[in-house]
Amino acid sequence: MKIIQLAFLCTLLSVTSYAQRTKYNFNSDWKVFIGDTTASGADFNDAGWKKVTLPYAWNEKEAFRKDIKDLSTGIAWYRKTFTLPASAAGQKVFLEFEGIRQAGDFYVNGQHIGIHENGVTAFGFDITGLVKPGAENTVAVRVDNSWDYREKATNQKFQWEDKNFNANYGGINKNVYLHVTGRVYQTLPLNSHLHTIGTYIYATDFNVKGQSATVHAESEVKNETAAPQAVSLEVTLTDINNKPVSNFSSKPQTIAPGQAVVLAAAAPVQKLNFWSWGYGYLYNVTTTLKINNKPVDALVTRTGFRKTEFKDGMVYLNDRVIMVHGYAQRTSNEWPSVGLSVPAWLSDYSNGLMVESNGNLVRWMHITPWKQDIESCDRVGLMQAMPAGDAEADVNGTRWEQRKAVMRDAMIYNRNNPSIIFYECGNESISEIHMGEMKAIRDQYDSHGGRAIGSREMLNSKVAEYGGEMLYTNKSAHIPMWAMEYSRDEGSRKYWDDYTPPYHKDGEGPDHNGQRASVYNRNMESHAVENVKRWYEFWRERPGTGSRVSSGGVNIVFSDTNTHHRGEENYRRSGEVDAFRIKKENFFAHQVMWNGWVVPEQEGLHIVGHWNYKPGVKKPVYVISTADKVELKVNGKSQGFGEKSDGFLFTFPAVAWEAGTVSAVGFDSKGKQVISGEKKTTGAPVALKLTNIPSPHGFTADGHDLALLQVEVIDAAGNRVPDALNTIKFSVEGPAEWIGGMAMGPDNYTLTREFPVEGGVNRALIRAATTAGKVTVKATTDGLTSATLTLHSKPFLTKGGLSTSLPGVDLPVSLVRGPAPLTPSYVPTRKALRIKGAIAGANADSAFMSYDDNELSDWVNDGKLETAWVEYELERKGTIHEITLKLNNFKSRSYPLRITVDGTEVYNGKTPLTLGYCTLSCKPTKGSRVRIQLAAISKDQGGSQLVEVTGKKLDDGVARDDSKAKGTLSIIEAEIYEPATK
């Protein structure tokens, strides 16, 4: 009896002594030493080391100063002394690292606790038995970011250690947390080392129109007491106004000592606000673990709910078709002189600009992004495609197992983030077996998350749930296909056009790996025009244009990046914004074209460029607009209507400049004015203007926060002078560190206090100290009135190296676009006539391959002109008005074709060069048999060839090259259309 009573008392004490879980910000009060030493011991003297606040890459200052391949590598040590509260006695203590680069050995109070080597994912350690509550403790980390680091257990490099795309910002470059919990607790979603899966929140039974769904909460619970525990899980939902929405519980369950079980609870919830594009509506889901009806562990998960489907070649979000348009962004998402390790508000600023440009998806490239960027996309309402880790090819053996491990860890860690819509298994196609293995991981850990899993390419996969090429247009009637990195051209923000100093004409620049700069190296004007042309290739095949459609594509990249490059600069300049997120003309081009789920749902107009030129200049003016026609005026005098091309582009070929105003007016098809815009000539430069781009919570003295400052050259009326190139000198006084700006020139002017504006504007960063106070920044330049800006940093409270103020948790969500509309996102423009059979002049047994919805197969004749025909039999008669074809070598070869319907000629002409599909307008003719034949020996067109930055030619069709095969007709896909019925 006494033994039973004692056991009961121990159990009761173990329960009642549990303090509520506490999550600490563990970023403060670290020290760094660059080089190798023996610094694992608790008594090691690190007094002379540099004091830093995490996240902090020890080579951060090299970001954009050095070529990616020259970023410094080697060993760096990080150390931190902290005091664990005395209340933690008897509790569980965990360390959580969001990630490091590349590999680290970890020590607590001198004892080695483990290693982590993949350089990508989050991981954690149980340090319960090593730390001393109420006393000082030491954490030491030895980090090795060598490019050729090899996994110790296998002696194998990780595939993603790549000097092309994976910028090497070394050290502890992401957030670190300390968790204190009771001994019956909800686990952390950290598979590496802890082997736990945490909490999983999801919804089923969606009724989007009725704003309801069944919300599920599953939480892995572990019992580390000496006795069985009867536990239950209570779930509470609160909205963005902290208003309770729902409360429900699981059934009680007994957990044996040392056992981990998953507790589950679910309930229908009404009046839900569904997360959507540009509508980052999030809920706090509190899962409270109870023993004897008393709370012992409460965990808050910030998440959102949305319905997705992937079918009929389309992506559905909240029952509405959404065409993918956004950016393929390097996962580093870096900034000059700090790399990726920026405060959370700056991630929101950057990712929010993607939404402001009307992008709806970011495809992070090659490796999983850090949690801060993932959570940021939740807040701003930006869909994500989340990769695991890879380079440019499928692999086998150890390297494939490494890729699977990263995908598993990333899914577990990020499965509660609603903005993740796609899981990407590779930057090139992978085998069906490998695709199946990745899909099995998804099904094990995230079977209810509403996320498609696939890979780049996968054009004929039976396992992948989405796919798509890199540069070309793909279409499908089953899984969605979207282009995963199109429009690789580059253009610096410094260069407006051919007519503005410093006069970088379109296409100028040195060769790169044998590739002429004229193929890719542009100024802002021609870059914007080219991006309109590229997007139109996908939009032309959008949902609503038939049974086989394109689901869109993402432009590479959003911001200029310190990764692969091919110009005079050591960084990539393909961004719609520059490295400091100053908008280029491309930004506004996309803002016009992408303002809708499939088709633009609001009228838009942008006049490309500026209106400050010299007398005598006569130049083309480009207007990007959703209107049916656009009229241009100079100082009120009409320049006529522009020539419309590529869906959104209006060209006015030779407009004489006059000081004053250039304006454009857009009209609909009935002649009604629907949109207008203008640009004015500014006055002469007279002054500088210095402003702070504000954080939602001010400037915080935590040693990590950054202030983003903008300097402009302005005229007497306060307008930015768009052709100003003045060199600006900066000074800073007060508790802040000058980080600096960036411009084209020596070392890209990084870290300096003197650099030029480009296009009349530039930016710089300063970092807060750990002491609060007044910070004064002054900007001066010869001949102009100077500008001064004062900031006041606010204190950041820490105790014993710990803080309960967590990065990003209190940042506001963006609801700018509102919830997903309940109306359809498109009106069908044409209807496909199904092909039921075909005959051909040669190889008739493979004629079906020309309409099999498989872009890796084709029908081709035997090279003779007389056999270069195929005839399709339709399932019924229809009025054929358009035929869409994907022909081999579509980028470089034009085919002279003759098309008949039931023997009547409806088309005779040459196909245009495209990025995939061409649509041929036919004389509307009713019939059921369509013959397509090569009308003459085709000539080599010498079309432009797209290449990798390595110089490698890219494919533009099936594997066989027909570019020189004069009598050959090769059809990859044929589609036959009649007008949509009204």
Automatic annotation (TrEMBL):
Domain DUF4982: start-end pairs: 616-674
Domain Glycoside hydrolase family, chain residue ranges per copy: 699-790
Gene Ontology process terms (BP): carbohydrate metabolic process
Glycosyl hydrolases family 2 sugar binding domain sequence ranges: 73-179
Signal peptide from the UniProt entry: 1-19
Protein name: Glycosyl hydrolases family 2, TIM barrel domain
Keywords, comma-separated and alphabetical: Glycosidase, Hydrolase, Signal
InterPro entries: Beta-gal/glucu_dom_sf, DUF4982, Galactose-bd-like_sf, GH, GH2_Domain-Containing, Glyco_hydro2_dom5, Glyco_hydro_2_cat, Glyco_hydro_2_N
Chain ranges of the Glycoside hydrolase family 2 immunoglobulin-like beta-sandwich domain: 204-306
Species name: Chitinophaga jiangningensis
